[in-house]
């Protein structure tokens, strides 16, 4: 069975576009991992939460999902800060496997609270987002996905600038490198942890705004994203921002081509198998991450 | 393990064994479900509690036990008991295979948790897609009541078998905790370097633990399918059982012997209670379980059993 | 020390971490039945050397021979089964287990039966002065208690060669006085000992032979009193390595 090149090209481009939003989700995860050295298992549930927030905002106030980006990012930053500083941090007594379990508990609670509130139904944004396409050569590309791609790259760039050029960014990097040393330099580590977690959540809020026009939400949707995001993070090297970006694009393409060749559910299978193989054979990631 | 704890467990199991004589089918149903989760959690506890390797993917073993048992009967006409034994063996084998891959690669902590989850998800997707496992519509085991078919008209028989299984696994756990293997497992959990220096073969110890753990959780899967007679990918390999096994063990008391049983009973009891109060709102019970997990980690690292011991100890010293 | 009855022969071992050369091609040997000292300033590479001997650090070059068998690539737990036991400079207790359980992990190496292993553990605990603390959690021990626990666990494996990494460090003089006879007694029971130690008075009192390391090299070896008079050794200690480095730079 062969496919005409336009179809394959369209799948590749579609995969890159979706992958850029995956990258944004993974960026939040890898940032938290890189600094706190913890795996935030509630990442997917928080994304679901953000997607419902976008859905509710757009449905009940009629604003555009793109207008919601900034207010929602601010709110989620605050939520993330508070969660880390006043719940996850204290509850886990600084033990890694405790953090994993605490965030697992949070994800179960959040996911099911959403289930109890919104029931299991799947929801989309009203409007004609699905029909907005842009012609590029012979390909028809979804406009929301194109916007998502551009916005994801911009956010990744902003995040990178923040880490490299601001005092907060320098403090975050100092804490990531050497917790004790940073503390001795007078950096308040708990505060920086909170900020990092908040930034991770803000990434999710942006990703949710970019996803909703072309995607749907139900209380379990985060599950699908969380393992994809972990795969990306592992591929890109835990804690690496450029790695997450590359990994996201790569996984987007794999999923899209896999879906084209094998059908959707087996396309998902490919992602999990990549995840397992990378962890077993290249746990430091594929893209130039150090051990 | 102290004599008083052991006596308490025997009394608890005896009390549970009396329940089917007095209670309605609804209550027996509740009991059997809780026992299935308890069995899965007892399996989880060997690896996660005693061995310190926290798995998010015990569904891989539960589902394998269930599918192998059901498929051997459906496709090859095997005897139900033989199929059950094969199901447990297959679960153990899957445990050994996953363990060999994962522990050889030295994956630990969060990595171990995530990779086990990924293995379970791979199996779930495959079971959902393949024809041999009935795909998305699942498999129905024909109703054939009779001891020879491991099916019983009376639910109470299932409850008693479940109690016997839990009792047997508790005995096995106790024996294990008091053995060289138990000491090695505890050493590996506490400090791998120190364990190696004392001659402990880390890989072999972890492999034994995951194989045993998987076999017990597979037995829970076998029991599930014989009781409910229906199986699909989301039941067998779904995250629900990975999560419930973990929750029951941790909330009950991680690494303690009785913890998983107490945890399973408490969780299912609480689940029934919240359903009683909150009506049919799905999810409320799990919201509470999730928060309980956070609370257990924050305030009661040794779960209900640990909190109880502290309380009793405190009163004795007072 | 040129005796042909060396129990342990380490030859030409080198090992780098990233750019840091922790061990630069050095050799040592330990005679059966001796107490051999391994001394040198901090960062000399002594602990890394123990890692190489006990199977925790893979050397880049060189070989480790124990009783005639090449064990250079053998995993740590198999070396323990051969009879090589070690303590850790940074103590590594099984924090969640009791003192008795900690020691029993060691005694299970030679005794599979739980009752025997526990009895052996109890005996070892008494021998190092932990007899009264068997049921205490290991995390409740004092510094000196933890050092004794390290020693007890290693002893419980019934080793032929015991590697002690600064078991006296952090102890006060009276605690040291208490523990020196224990070490003597261990040797008297036929166990060969290789010990890293900073407490010179203990080294002088205990050791038959001494090897001196500085900056990943072996700078001296011999009997205790001879080693003490060796100018290179004095320089390495007094200059905290700086003198040796200057000399090297001068020679280069
Ligand atoms: N695992 C490691 N990674 C990087 N450097 C190491 C490691 N182990 C030891 N080193 C370095 O090797 C050198 C020797 O250390 P060590 O063997 O602990 O010395 P000593 O025990 O003599 O004080 C030191 O510079 C130390 O920093
Ligand atoms: Mg040292």
Strand residues, percent of chain B:
under 5%
Please identify the structural class of chain C as seen in this structure: alpha/beta
CATH class of chain B, please?
Answer: Mainly Alpha
Query: How many domains in all of chain C?
Result: 2
Give the CA-based shape of chain B.
globular
User: How is the CATH topology of the largest domain in chain C named?
Assistant: Rossmann fold
Biggest contact: A-B, 45 and 42 residues
Rg of chain C to the nearest angstrom? 18 Å
User: What helical percentage do the residues of chain C reach?
Assistant: 25-40%
Low-pLDDT windows of residues of chain C: none
Q: What is the architecture of chain B at the second tier of CATH?
A: Orthogonal Bundle
Q: What's the count of strands of chain B? A: 2
Order of helices and strands of chain B: HHHHHEHHHHEHHHHH
Q: Can you identify the CATH class of the largest domain in chain C?
A: Alpha Beta
Radius of gyration of chain B: 19 Å
List keywords for this structure.
heterotrimer, B: about 325 residues, mainly alpha, ABC transporter involved in vitamin B12 uptake, BtuC, two-stranded antiparallel sheet, 14 helices, 2 strands, globular, C: about 250 residues, alpha/beta, Rossmann fold, 2 domains, six-stranded mixed sheet, four-stranded antiparallel sheet, 10 strands, binds adenosine-5'-diphosphate, binds magnesium ion
């Amino acid at each position: 069975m062969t496919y005409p090149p336009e179809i394959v090209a369209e799948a590749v481009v579609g995969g890159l576009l979706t992958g850029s939003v995956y990258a944004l989700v993974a960026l939040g995860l890898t940032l938290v991992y890189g600094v706190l050295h913890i795996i935030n298992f509630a990442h997917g549930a928080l994304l679901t939460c953000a997607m419902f927030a976008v859905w509710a905002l757009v449905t009940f106030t009629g604003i555009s999902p793109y207008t919601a980006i900034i207010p929602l990012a601010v709110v989620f930053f605050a939520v993330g800060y508070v969660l880390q500083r006043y719940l996850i941090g204290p509850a886990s007594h600084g033990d890694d496997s405790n953090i994993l379990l605490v965030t697992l508990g949070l994800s179960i609670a959040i996911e099911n609270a959403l289930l109890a509130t919104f029931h299991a139904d799947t929801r989309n944004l009203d409007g004609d987002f699905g029909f907005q396409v842009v012609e590029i050569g012979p390909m028809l590309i979804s406009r929301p996905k194109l916007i998502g791609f551009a916005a994801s790259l911009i956010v990744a760039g902003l995040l990178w600038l923040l880490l490299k050029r601001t005092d907060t960014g320098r403090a975050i990097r100092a804490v990531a490198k050497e917790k004790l040393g940073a503390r001795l330099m007078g950096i308040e580590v708990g505060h920086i942890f909170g900020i990092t977690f908040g930034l991770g959540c803000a990434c999710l809020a942006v990703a949710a705004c970019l996803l909703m026009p072309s995607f749907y939400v139900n209380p379990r949707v985060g599950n699908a994203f969380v393992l994809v995001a972990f795969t990306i993070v592992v591929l890109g090297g835990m804690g690496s921002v450029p790695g997450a970006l590359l990994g996201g694009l790569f996984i987007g393409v794999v999923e899209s081509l896999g879906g084209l060749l094998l059908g959707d559910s087996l396309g998902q299978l490919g992602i999990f198998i990549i995840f397992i193989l990378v962890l077993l054979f290249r746990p430091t990631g594929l893209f130039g991450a150090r051990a | 393990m102290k004599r008083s704890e052991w006596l308490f467990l025997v009394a608890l199991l005896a009390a549970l064994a009396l329940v089917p004589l007095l209670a309605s089918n609804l209550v027996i149903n509740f009991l059997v479900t809780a026992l299935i989760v308890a069995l899965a959690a007892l399996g989880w506890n060997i690896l996660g509690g005693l061995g310190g390797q926290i798995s998010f993917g015990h569904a891989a073993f539960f589902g394998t036990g269930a599918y192998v048992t059901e498929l051997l009967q459906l496709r090859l006409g095997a005897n139900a008991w033989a199929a059950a034994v094969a199901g447990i063996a297959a679960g153990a084998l899957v445990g050994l295979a996953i363990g060999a891959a994962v522990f050889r690669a030295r994956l630990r902590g969060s990595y171990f948790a995530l990779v086990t989850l990924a293995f379970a998800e791979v199996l779930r997707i495959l079971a959902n897609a393949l024809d041999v496992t009935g795909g998305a519509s699942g498999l129905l085991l024909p109703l054939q009541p009779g001891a020879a078919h491991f099916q019983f008209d009376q639910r109470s028989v299932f409850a008693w078998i479940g109690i016997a299984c839990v009792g047997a696994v508790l005995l096995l756990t106790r024996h294990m905790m008091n053995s060289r293997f138990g000491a090695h497992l505890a050493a590996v959990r506490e400090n791998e370097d120190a364990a190696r220096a004392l001659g402990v073969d880390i890989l072999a110890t972890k492999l034994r633990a995951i194989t045993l753990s998987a076999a017990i959780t597979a037995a829970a899967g076998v029991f599930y399918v014989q009781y409910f007679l229906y199986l699909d990918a989301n039941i067998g390999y779904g995250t629900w059982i990975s999560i419930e096994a973990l929750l029951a063990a941790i909330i009950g008391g991680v690494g303690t012997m009785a913890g998983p049983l107490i945890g399973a009973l408490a969780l299912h009891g609480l689940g029934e209670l919240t359903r009683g109060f909150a009506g049919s709102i799905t999810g409320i019970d799990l919201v509470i379980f999730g928060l309980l997990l956070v609370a257990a980690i924050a305030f009661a690292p040794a779960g209900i059993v640990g909190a109880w011991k502290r309380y009793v100890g405190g009163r004795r010293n007072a | 020390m040129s005796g042909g009855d060396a129990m342990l022969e380490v030859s030409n071992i080198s090992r780098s971490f990233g750019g840091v050369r922790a061990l630069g091609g050095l050799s040592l040997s330990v005679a059966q039945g001796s107490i051999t000292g391994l001394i040198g300033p901090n960062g000399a590479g002594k602990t890394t050397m123990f890692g190489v001997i006990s199977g925790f650090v893979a050397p880049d070059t060189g070989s480790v021979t124990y009783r005639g068998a090449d064990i250079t690539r053998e995993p740590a737990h198999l070396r323990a089964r051969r009879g090589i036991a070690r303590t850790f400079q940074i103590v590594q207790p099984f924090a969640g287990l009791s003192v008795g359980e900690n020691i029993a992990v060691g005694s299970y190496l030679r005794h599979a039966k739980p009752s025997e292993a526990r009895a052996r553990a109890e005996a070892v605990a008494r021998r190092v002065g932990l007899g009264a603390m068997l049921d205490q959690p290991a995390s409740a021990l004092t510094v000196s208690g933890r050092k004794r626990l390290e020693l007890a666990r290693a002893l419980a494996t019934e080793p032929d060669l015991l590697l002690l990494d600064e078991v006296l460090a952090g102890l006060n003089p009276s605690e040291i006085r208490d523990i020196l006879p224990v070490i003597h007694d261990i040797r008297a029971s036929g166990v060969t000992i290789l010990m890293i130690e900073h407490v010179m008075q203990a080294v002088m009192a205990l050791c038959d032979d001494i090897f001196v390391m500085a900056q990943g090299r072996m700078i001296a070896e011999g009997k205790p009193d001879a080693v003490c008079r060796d100018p290179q050794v004095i320089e390495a200690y007094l200059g905290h390595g700086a003198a040796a480095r200057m000399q090297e730079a001068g020679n280069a």
